[in-house]
Structure formats: C-alpha cells, structure tokens
Amino acid sequence: MRIDDHPILGEIPKGPEVSFTFDGRSLTGREGEPIAMALRAAGVLVHRFTAKRQDARGVFCAIGRCTDCIMVVDGRPNVRTCVTPLKAGMVVETQMGLGPEPGRA
Amino acid sequence: MQRYELVCVGAGPAGLAGAIEAARYGAQVVVYDENERPGGQLFKQIHKFFGSREHRAGERGFDIGQSLLEQARELGVEVVLNATVLGIYEGGELQIRQEDTIFPVHGQKVLIATGASENMIPFPGWTLPGVIGAGAAQTMANLHGVRPGKRLLMVGAGNVGLVVSYQMLQAGCQVAAVIDAAPAIGGYGVHAAKVARQGVPFYMSQTVLQAHGADHVEGVTMARVDDKWQPVPGSEQSLEVDTICLAVGLNPMTQLCRMAHCQTVFVPALGGHVPAHDQNQETTVPGYYVAGDVSGIEEASSAIIQGRVAGLAVAHSLGYLSDEDFAAQQQEQLQSMRGLRHGPFGQARADGKELLARSVQEARQ
Amino acid sequence: MSEGLAVQGYISEQELRDAPGIPSALRRSRGPVAVIECIQPIPCNPCEASCRAEAISVGSDITALPRLDEDKCIGCYTCVPICPGQAIFVVDESLPGDQATIAMPYEFLPLPEEGEKVIALDRGGAELGEAEVARVQKSKRMNQTAMVTLNIPKGWTMRARAFRLTR
C-alpha cells in the first residue's frame, strides 16, 4: 500500500523505519509519519468501535478535523492518529467507545 | 501581548500571498496555521495549473507552494505552525493555541484565509472505514505516500473528483467509476478526459444507495436518479470497491469571520455562506480581510491573487503605499483575476463576487 | 443524451469535428502536426505561449478555445507535454503504407521502454490493439510529463489517445 516511486513526486521523503505495537502486534512504520498512515500501510483500517452500537470507524478526513480516526496511544485515548506522528515503541490500541480514563489501570 | 501590523490566519496560498504582498511594502506580518506543514491544499496538488504565465500556468501546486514559502521567509514574514487561532475579537485581538499554551496576539489588520472544508453525503454504510473525503485520498497519497485503497469509487465529478481520480490512478490505485447525481460532469472536460482514456467509466445521474462491508468497505450499490433526484427502482448496480471517495463540494470555513461579526451572504455558486467583501477583499468589519476559498470556492490561482489584493490593501491602509501606486497595482491584480472568471465556468462566480461587494456597500451606508 | 464530453467524460465524434484545434486529413498526411482536443472555454493558454511557430492562438481572453493554423504548425512536439490538460497530441501520417505515429503525454510509472509492445486505448479507454513504443522522452523542461510516441496504423491517429502496459 506504500507508493515506492511516484510519477510526479518521486520518492516521498520518510523518516527511518521504527517498530510500534498495535493491539499487542508488532508492526513497523516510518518515524514521523501519521500513526494512521503506518496502520493503513500495514492494512489496518479499523481504528475504533463506537460506544452505543460498536460500529467500526477509521480515517475519514485525514487532516485532524473529523475525529473518526481516534485511538488509544500510549494509554491516552482520543488521539487523532491522522495528525499524530509515529514514534518508535508507541503502543497503539483500538479504542472501544470513549476509551479508558487516563491514570486508571 | 505580541503586536503585528498584519496577522494572517492560514498559511495556504491566499494567506501566504497576502503576507508576502504586505511584507513587500514594509508591513510587519505573522501567519498562523494549525497544521504542522504550511501551504494549505497546495502541496497535495501534483497536476499542472491552468491559466496564463502570470497565473503560473504549467507549474505544479507543490512547486508554487514551495516558492510562496521561500518568498515569505525572504521577506521576514513569521510563519508559525501548529498554532490554532481559537478566537478573534473586536479591535484586532486573536487568541492562539500552541500545544498547551494559549496566548493573545494583536493585529492592526487581520487577513482570514482559512480555506474550506469538504461536504459529505450520508448514506447507509457511510461511516465504514474506507469511506473517505477526496481531500483525504490526496493527503494520503501525495503527502504521505500511502495508497488509500486498492480499488475506489469516486463520488462527485466536479474538478476535485476528477483531479483526485487521476491522482489515484497515478498512485497505483484502480478507479472503478466516477459518479455524480447531476446529469452532466461539473468539472473541466480535460480533467475528465485524462481519466476516461484510462478506461474509467463515468456514470452521471447516479447516487450511492449503500456502502457494504462488515467492518470496512467491501462494495457499493448505486442507482440512477430521476429528474427529482429520486433513485429509479430497478436501476441498481453494485461495484466491488474497498474505498469510496466523496468529492461533493467544498464550503468556506467561516467560523472566525462569523465570530468577528463579518456579515455573510448565502451564495450557492461560491459554496454556501460567504463573508461579504469588497474589491479590496475587506469585510464589513473595518480592518478584517478575507482571501482564498473562505471568501468563495474558486481555485488556487484565484486564492493567490485575492491574497495579493488583500495584502496590497493592507499595505496601503497602513500607509506603506501611495494612492497612485496602490491603484495601479490593484488594477493589475483585478485584471488578472477577471481573466480567471471568464467563460461559463467563471460567470456565476463573478456574479457572486459582485453581489458580495454590493452587500458591503449597502452595509457601509 | 449519452454522447459528449459532459456526460461520458470524453469528446464525441461530433465535438471532434467542430473543434478549432483539429488539423485536416490533408495536413496530417503531409507530416507531424498537432491535434488539440480542447473544446471548453476555460482560462488557459500555455499552448499558445509555447508554440514556436505561432501556429496556436488563444488571444487576450484566455478562455477562448485554442485555434490551430495547420499550415504554420511544424510538428515540433513542444506543445504535447506543455498542455496542463494533456489534451494535445502530435500525429504523423506521412510515413509509407499504413504506418503512422502518435506522441502522447504520459504521467504514470513505470515508463514503457522503446520497442516495448503496449495496448493502444481510445478516448474512452477501449482497447484498439497492440502498438509498439517508438520513443520515450522525459526531460527537465517537460516538468515530469513524459512523452511517449507509438507506431500505429494510420486509421488510429484520430482514435488512439492512451495506452496500457502489458506487463
């Protein structure tokens, strides 16, 4: 799903490859790219399930406006993964409803 | 409190062009943008622009964006990123948020160049992962180098839908079809032709009935619509796609304008509720200007010219430009702008802009 | 209403006949010449600005349709990669027998190679048949738009407008 060589843009500059976990699975992505992009490149489209109906949600606007892409990142819920840069060792989890309260086990 | 002669909200083509023009004549300018990269939508535009040489025809959006940034920096314009303008108040005061800090800023003049946001059309299944805005598809492919999906349906045959369809082909995706509820393609024929010759079918008078899939898009059902926009029973067809792109129009992001009590007018040809402005791009609030898509949905080349017009007017009102020089420079820019609003595609927009100017005149009486 | 640019996304035979940028069959038989398939009044004139022979005219109202003076056109290929709408092609029907060539703008990867066999497509993307790649050019001046020239039968010069790779 990654574009290696774009006919107009050539090679799109990316940071070094880093590892992170998604729901306990080890995945790799590029440092500094939006978490949502690393997930999409790895084939992950479902970011969360809604509170009432457990509907699957994922990226919609990709520019940090709609909040459909939010996930729990390093224990913190409601992180807009489409505008949050990936860091090595990040713990990314599917958010269920409103997610866990920070500071609670 | 930090004080500037001009505060620009938005570092897209309009905001940057406005900042450059005002700074060129000596004004002290700052530009705030909520994104981590400047340039607005420009950096996602990988096609060659139309227009004439003065409109930078033949140049690609991202190259134009880069050169605007460099010009701004050379002129000493402060471009502050990751800075959200939370509010705008009377007398040129704005509140800015940067991470966990909120601080006030004062501008003698303010240029609101916040652009537009995408419309959406709800249909059963539209919340499934895989349904994305056309802008999202561009962002993923052109900024981040990730294909939004393998096979997509483009909903909307205006310029955005057509241009993004072609960009998706360039990114290596398949485009199953381009559809629109209207009976005719709304965007430029040449944009459509680039896509059609790659074998992508166009279905006009079509609407999406439902997106299918367990937890992501796996297919879509569409149907023909009659002249009352109602689906025609028996005309349903299904396509296997993993992505549905919505390119169903843009509407100006006027929150700050309205907060500042700028009068707005509903002009469908310009995308919806638009802040009234005169030919200096000044709103009904003295000292507050608008430029780019927030002042009416047009194109990047129009946004750049509008930014320049606003920047010139600001420089003039700050005393950096004589009346004669201002008049001459402004005429040149307005002439250039008129060139872009000719023809059947531009007439409705030109009429809309005239209506807005008249509104301001009436408001000032 | 199923024909026409506004409905199907590509120009119909009727629209083609009425376009001011289309050279006559006679001129096409004499050597390379531009074919400008631009039929909507949009503000745009890089074709006029780039033409070395002053054969393309748009005028001061840049929404005017480009007109081709086929006698002035020298078939230099400059306009092909210049047109932002990728609406200009250069065809040459002066070759012996049933041979002709067509130069097209191309902005995809991978680029074909000279000698490679590709499938020529018409304006609607329908397959016309196999064609050989005669030339591939991509220079800095073209600003990322490559130009691919195909060897095709004469009957395809006003039909072939794209191609797909077979690999």
What would the keywords be for this entry?
heterotrimer; B: 365 residues; alpha/beta; FAD/NAD(P)-binding domain; 7-stranded mixed beta sheet; 5-stranded parallel beta sheet; 9 helices; 33% helix; 26% strand; C: 167 residues; alpha+beta; 7-stranded antiparallel beta sheet; two-stranded antiparallel ribbon; 5 helices; 15% helix
Short description:
Chain A is mainly β. Chain A has one helix and eight strands. Chain B is globular.
Strand and helix layout:
The complex is a heterotrimer of chains A (about 100), B (about 375) and C (about 170).
Chain A: E1 17-22, E2 25-30, H1 35-41, E3 48-49, E4 56-57, E5 70-73, E6 76-80, E7 91-93, E8 95-96
Parallel strand pairs in A: 1-7, 3-8
Antiparallel strand pairs in A: 1-2, 3-4, 5-6, 5-7
Chain B: E1 2-9, H1 13-24, E2 29-32, H2 61-74, E3 78-80, E4 83-88, E5 93-98, E6 101-112, E7 116-118, E8 131-133, H3 134-143, E9 151-155, H4 159-170, E10 174-180, H5 189-196, E11 202-204, E12 206-212, E13 219-224, E14 237-239, E15 243-246, E16 250-252, H6 255-259, E17 264-267, E18 272-275, E19 288-290, H7 300-317, H8 323-340, H9 343-364
Parallel strand pairs in B: 1-2, 1-6, 2-3, 6-19, 8-15, 9-10, 9-15, 10-11
Antiparallel strand pairs in B: 4-5, 5-6, 7-16, 12-13, 13-14, 17-18
Helix pairs in contact in B: 1-2, 1-7, 3-4, 4-5, 7-8
Chain C: H1 5-8, H2 13-18, H3 25-30, E1 33-36, H4 46-50, E2 56-57, E3 67-68, H5 79-82, E4 88-92, E5 99-106, E6 117-122, E7 127-137, E8 146-153, E9 160-165
Antiparallel strand pairs in C: 1-4, 2-3, 4-5, 5-8, 6-7, 6-9, 7-8
